[in-house]
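Lab notebook, bench 4. The sequencing result for the construct came back, and we need a structural model before the next group meeting so we can plan mutations. Quick request posted to the team channel:

Model the 3D structure of this chain.
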Amino acid sequence: MSRPRNHEPQPPPPADAAAADDGFREVLVRLRGGYESLSAAERRVGDAVAADPQALIRLPLRALADSAGVSDATVVRFCKALGYDGLRGLKRELVAKALSPARAARDALAPDDDLASIVEKVFGSNIAMLRDTLELLDRSALAAAVEAILTSSRIEFYAVGPSLGVALDAHYRLLRLGLPATAVSDVHLQATSAANLPPGAVAFAISHYGKAFETHSSIRWAKQAGATCIVLTSYRDTPLSRLADIALVVAAPESASRPEGVATRIAHLAVVDALSVAIALRRPQAASTALLRDYEIIGEREVEK
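Done. Here's the predicted structure in C-alpha cell form:
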C-alpha cells in the first residue's frame, strides 16, 4: 500500500494497543520512533511485537524469532536497536514496571461519536502523547540543549509547515527571557541566515518527520558555520537528526484518526515549555527583569475599558 510522501513507514497498530499497560506502551513508543531505522528483518520482529505486545513477556527468544521468521540474532539486534540489552533486558524492564489498568480506546474515533465522546477521546489521546513523550525523552539531551542555549551568542530557529508555529513559539519564549533568539520564517532566507551564523550560535530545527528539505538545508549550512545544532523531532533516525549535535525526540503518535503533525505539536510544545522553564530557572534575575520589561511593553498595547 502506498504512503504519503515524507511519511515514515510505521508498524501496524496492535489490535490491543488501547489495553496495553505502561510497560508495553513504552516498547511500542520506542518501536514507532525507531521503525524506519530497522532492517527489513528487524521490522518483521517489530510487526510481530506490534501484533501482540503482551506476548513479549512469555515468549522465549526462539519462539519470537520463529513467529517473525527471522534468526535469534535478529531478535537480539532488534531489542538493542530499541535501546534494550537484548530480549532478556527488555523483559526485565517490562517486569519492573507496575502494570496499570487497561486504557480506554481513546483514539478509536467513529463517525457516529457524539461531541462528548470526541472531546474525551481527543483529550485522552493528547494526554497519552505527553505521557509517552515523558517516558521517551532523553533527559541528558534536554540538559545539553539547555546548556547550549544558555552559553550561545545567538539562537536561531528553523522550521516549515506545521512545525513553524512551534518554532515561532520557541523564539518568542526565549526572546521574552532576554535571550538573543530569532526565527526565520521565509524558507528562502533560512539557509542563507544559517550559513552566516556567528561562532557560538545555536541552530534549532523543529521537524516532525525530520525530512523537510528546507530545514535540513538550514541545519547543514549552520553546521558548516560552526553552530551547535539542536533538532526537535518525532523519530530517532532521520536525515535531520543525523546532522544534530543534540536530538530531542518525542513520542511518535499511534492514532490513525488524526493527522500526526497535529497530535505531535502538543508534545513539541511541551518540550519547548520545559526548555524555557529550565532556562529561566538557571538565570532567574535576568529572566525576571526581561519578563517585567515584556509585561510593560504588552501593557502599553492593551485597550482600556
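Residues 1-9, 11-20, 98-107 have pLDDT under 50 and may be disordered.
Will bring this to the meeting.
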